[in-house]
Amino acid sequence: MQRIQHTPTIFVNIPWSNDPIEAKCRPFYSHREDKPGCQFSNLYPASISINTSQTLSQSEETFLFRERGEIRFPSSENAFQCAKAQEELYVDFVLALDPLNAARAGQGRLNMNKHQRDLFERLGGQVVRKGSGKKVKYQISENARYLRRPDWETLKKSVMMIALKAKFSQHPHLWKEYVEAPHMTFFIEHTQNDNQWGDAGSGNGTNFLGKMLTALLWETRTGQTLDRIAFFYLDWLHTANVWVAEDFYRD
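Below the sequence we write its predicted structure tokens.
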């Protein structure tokens, strides 16, 4: 894992300060150990325990299968993709996958190998075969996606924060130097492959994941808690990252 002092210093706009703050910038994307900031990827293999009976409010359940109680997930990605599921079959299936394949399953990109097909069928699923010959694909459904809970778009950011809190509270060594550094750090999931959780490479993406990591780091460093349903926080979260960290995207 690349150390914090090798990252650039920039000025960033954050919702808990009236003026831009000076911060180290930590771009990241890959979960591979040889890549800078790998531990901040949701695919990084840091297992987490989450109490699935916890609720976000009186009417909003974090997980639909609350009777399971405490569950150990292989990664924050597995937890996020399991929380998305409307049916318990897919919770069990995604829970058994490695983080990368959990992401593929949740995003409708998983072409199951024989081991995964056997597991899916043992759990009660029906494998859907598409194509033939070298182009054959084995999917979990006709469109390769599992049914999402109807309130997912509303709750997904809150679920992600629960997973991130679990990850860094249960594995504090992953960002110990960032917590103890004399300066704040601003995280950017820097990739052309994602314009919502990442920055779209150009800064036109919203960088949800990087901003949420930044907010969680600030809370951990200060012991204070942000109001994540306040307009100023949500507006910041949905602002294109180039307007939040303009210095990072300068030529």
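The chain has two domains: 4-44+171-249, 48-139.
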